[in-house]
Amino acid sequence: MKPTYLNPIQEIYHLWEPVYPYLSQQIFELFNRKDGDILEMGPFSGLIFHLKKRDIGNSFLIAAFPPGMGNFFRDEARKQKMEDRIRVMETDPALTGIGEKKIDLAIFRGAFFFPSLFKVNFSAIDRVLKTNGVALIGGGFGKFTPDWVIENIGKRSRDLNREIGEIEIDEDGLRHQIQSEVVQGKMEVISEGGLWVLMRK
Asked: What's the CA gap between 170 and 136, in Å, rounded?
């Protein structure tokens, strides 16, 4: 039997499809490269397909968790005819199975808002990043997404997020949370287009 959280998460993936092209633009602006090894992690992945369509990145990996999301993203890769280019692996927030210094860009959407599903493991993200690697950890619509797109999906998105167990976190709370993290990468909070932690190694 499929875990109850999977249905709303999968609906959110499809609901947010109009957002991904705009959000991928903000990520490209922060990454500022067209090459590199790209990782997207967690249940709210999906941007990686759009980065591939924009020819941003050389290799692509989805690190899927909690259990059950791996098959969903494998099916999505097949539907988009990207199964040969985007690898999907089942793992956990510790990124078990991904070696040290393998990743140039790591993306973790929905990171701080669903503690009942997972906890962000900053040291794991820091471990897999290469020198000069970048990680964007957090959530939001992104600064380039038009208001009309947000208005179209906003209410349903909020309802689904509440169903999954979303909590509220503000910028001060997030700053306090990352102060206790001991990682090599430098971390800053970005509140433009959501609430994100930008880690640069």
From this structure: 17
